Amino acid sequence: MTLLATLDHADADLTACLARVMAAMLKPGDVVALQGPVGAGKTHFARALIRARQGEAAEDVPSPTFTLVQTYDDPLGTEIWHADLYRLTHPDELVELGLEDAMRDSILLIEWPEHGGRLPDPLTLGFEPIGDFPDLRRITLAGTEIRWGAMARLPAIAQLLHRAGWADARLLPLAGDASSRRYFRLIEGARSAVLMDAAPGTTDSYVAMTQWLRHRGLHAPAILAANQTEGLLLLEDLGDDLVARVLESDPALAPRIYDRMTDLLVELHGHAPPGDILRLDGPELARQVGLFAEYYPAAAGAPGKGLQVAGAIEALHAQLAEDMPPVLGLRDFHAENLVWRGDEPMGLLDFQDAVVVHPAYDLVSGLQDARRDVAPEIEAAQIARYIAATGVDADRFRAAYALLGAQRNLRIMGIFTRLAEREGKRRYLAFMPRVWDAIQRDLAHPALAPLAAALEGVPAPSAQVIARIAQE
């Protein structure tokens, strides 16, 4: 067992806040052992955790000192067992109490665990009163690194929420993005916020880009509190109306929504980009598209094909795109990362990897979406809308749009293949036919003939090809 983290000088509110944070992390089969003397705060912690899991259906949570065990229904679908083993006379009594069976598919909170013998890989919380401060305690978290290592983040999260005035909030996990970041919604009465839990020291780019966007009137979520050393940000909650969900529930809104997306890019591109971020010029675009040749052709049964793709893209970029001043590109500008707010400005998400790039790049990202079909007439209308609003050369912009669309989509084919082969994430393979169709439309532009030639012999992602990649 390894010491994972320590929370010092925890009063009753901070102790309960730690419990609420942990409540969002626990899953069926987890055993939490609560150790410490009488009055150290074990039951207070367990009570806060159980009530956080239950949310609006929260019950009274009495101490199980005399009943030994209390069970609670969890609206999230997991039963919670709260046990006090102080009066247990022999470890064999665990079987009689039903705790051994409960350890398979319930969440167990066990006070005085040392009276019950050896527990299977628990997370152990130690509660130690602090000398002359009877209302304060030191809380230690210990367990095996492989199972419980992520819990080392909890004290820092609890301290941030406590300091920011969100100690009483309930945390609910939110769907994450393709990175290792985790997101939680905080709910307290009528107010809510979002917690971003990223790797320590990795939020600087997000904070800098948030400030850049907000100073220019673009609606990135406001930062309510932060611990950038630990990689923790408390953010404004923009709600659940992602453009992707709105389009699915009300497809008739698509023309209006895509008009707003294009207008947002026009506004964004009216500002000179920051000078301290990655520039996606021809050589960098060529380097990134190398993922395609590295992974997809061989996985599709055509090893050695597509090796000239990167060189063709670099040469075409020099011919078709380098004459236009670059702009800020949010890089993942699509329906999953935009929040529909009616007549209010669209909310922006996932922009920390912004780049300096040709103006067509983000337009391609929004209109050639790997996850959903965009009607051809909408794509054509938005390209025309952008050209009309900015006054760029129409023919050169359309050629650059086709080139950047092909580059972006070829790279995506490589990424999806790599995710399947190296990480077992096969769900993205279902998007491949749509991405390939977009590539073929882009290659139809006469200016991209050299790129089309570089792709000769590379098979389309047929059902057989996708099955082959999935099996590998």
Automatic annotation (TrEMBL):
A GO MF term: ATP binding
Name of one Pfam family that matches: APH
Domain Aminoglycoside phosphotransferase: 172-390
GO biological process terms on file: tRNA threonylcarbamoyladenosine modification
Domain of life: Bacteria
GO cellular component terms attached to this protein's record: cytoplasm
Keywords for the protein's UniProt record, in alphabetical order: ATP-binding, Cytoplasm, Magnesium, Metal-binding, Nucleotide-binding, tRNA processing
Alphabetical list of InterPro entries matching this protein: Aminoglycoside_PTrfase, Kinase-like_dom_sf, P-loop_NTPase, T6A_TsaE
Keyword tRNA processing: yes
Subcellular location(s) of the protein: Cytoplasm
Family named by the database record: Belongs to the TsaE family.
This protein's name: tRNA threonylcarbamoyladenosine biosynthesis protein TsaE
Provenance organism: Paracoccus halophilus
